[in-house]
Amino acid sequence: MSSSYATILRRPGALGFSAAGLIARFPMSMVGISTILAIQELYGSYSTAGTVSAVNVVAVAVGAPVLARLVDARGQSRVMLPATLGSAAALIGLAAATQLRAPLGVLLVLSALAGLLAGSFGSLVRSRWTYILDTPEQVHTAFSLEAAFDEVAFIIGPVLATVLCTSPPLPATSGWIAAVALQVGGGLWFFSQRATEPTPHRRVPASTAAEASQRPGPRPGGRKPATEPGEPAAPVRDQRRAQTRPVLRHGAVVAVIAVFLASGAMFGANDVAAVAFATELGMKSAAGTVLAAWGVGSFTAALVYGSRPWHRPLWQQFLLGTTALALGASTLVLAPNLVVLGVLMALTGMAIAPTVTTGNSITQVSVAPSQLTEGLAWVGTAMNIGISLGSMFGGYAVDAAGSHGGYLLVAAMGWLAVGMCLCGLRVLRQARPHRSLHDGAEPVGTDTVGVGGA
Fold first, then answer.
1. Full domain range(s) for residue 254
2. Hey, is 106 helix, strand or coil?
3. Residue 224 placed within a domain
4. CA-CA distance, 274 to 107, in Å (whole number)?
5. Helix axes 121-132, 14-24, angle to 10 degrees
6. 414 and 263 in contact (C-beta within 8 Å)?
7. How far apart are CA 299 and CA 296, in angstroms?
8. pTM, to two decimals
9. Cβ-based burial of 13 (10 A; exposed 0-12, middle 13-18, buried ≥19)
10. Which residue among 200, 225, 246 closes a domain?
11. Structural domain includes residue 233
12. What is the domain count for the chain?
C-alpha cells in the first residue's frame, strides 16, 4: 500500500501542495458547526443560527462552480488568492458582528459573502494532481489519498470547532477564528507553490484555433509536444478542448451530480438521526463519537482503495459503491444501542470514499482539461447541497417519528442514490479512462484497463 502513495508523493511539489490543501480545507468542516454554536450561544436562537448557516451553505453552492470556472480560465492563484482572503475577511467580520449582537441582516450578508468566496480547495488540489501525474492509476491513488484527507478534516474539524466554541475561557466565536487561521495559512502556503499550478485554459473563438494550428506549443508541465504525422498539433488539441460543451451538458457528470445529491442527503439525514438516537438513550454527548465512525470507516477504505488499480469499469465501481452504501444505510435503523450503531456506521462508511473517488474519476475523464476544476466543483457542490437538504428533511422526520423515522429517511436516500445511478448507466458507461493524462490520449476499453479513480 505504502509504495503506491510514496510514488506519487515523491513527485516534485506533491507533498507540499497536498499538505497545504488539507490545512486549507479544514474550514469546510468547521464553519457550519461554529456558526450554529456561536449564534445560538450569543443570540439564544437555533432558528437564527440555522438560517445563517444555511445561507452560507447556499452561497458556497452558488460561488464554488463560478470560481472554479474562473480558475480554469485564469489560474488558481490569480482567482483564488484574493477570493480566499475576501472569504476570511468576511468570516472575521461575521465573528465581530456576532459578538456585537448585530442585526440578523448583517450576519446574513457576511455569511453569504464568506461562502461565495470560499471556493473548493478539494477541486484545486485534485486538479494539481491531474496536472503533474501521467497515468489513470496514479490519479486513482492520488484522488483516494485526497478522499482520505477529506475524512481527516471531517473527523477532526467539527471536534476542534466544538471544543473551541464551548470552552469557558474562550469566546463563542473561537471556532470561526480558528477556521480563518487555517484557511489563510493553508491557502497562502498552497498558492505560493506555483510550480505545480495547472496552466490556465482560456476559452477562445473557433477562428483562433485555425491560427493556433500554425504555431508550436508546449504540453502541460513544459514538455514538448510529440506530434505524430497526421496528428493535430498540441495547440489545436487544446483549442478543441477549450471549445467543448459546458460541464452540465456532459451526461455522465449530471448523473454523478444526481447520485451525489441523494448520497449527500443520506449523510445529512444521518447526522440528525444519530443525534436524535443518542438523545433518546440519554447519551447526547456521545453523538459526535458515533458520527466519527462514519469518517473512520471511509478514511480506512480510501487508503486501501487507492493502494492498487481496479480492473472493473468506472460505472461498475460507482454502482457497486452506491449499492453498498444503500445496503449499509438500511441496517442503521436496526441498531439497538450506540455501540452497535457505531460499528454499523464504520462498516457502511467504508463505501463512502471509494464511491466519492469513483464519482470524481468519472467527472475527470468526462470533461476537458479546461473544465476540470469546474467539473469537480460541481460534483462537490452537489454533495454539500444534498447534505443540507438531508439535514433539513431529517429534522422533519425526527420531529415526526423520532430517530426511527430519521433512519428510514437515511435508507430511502441511499436507495434513491442507487436509482439515480441506474437511471444514468447509459451515460456513465461512456466514461472511460485514458492511457495518458496528456494531449492526444486515446480512451481505452473499460473492459480491459485497470481503472483509475478520482
1. 238-454
2. helix
3. no
4. 29
5. 170
6. yes
7. 5
8. 0.76
9. middle
10. 200
11. no
12. 2
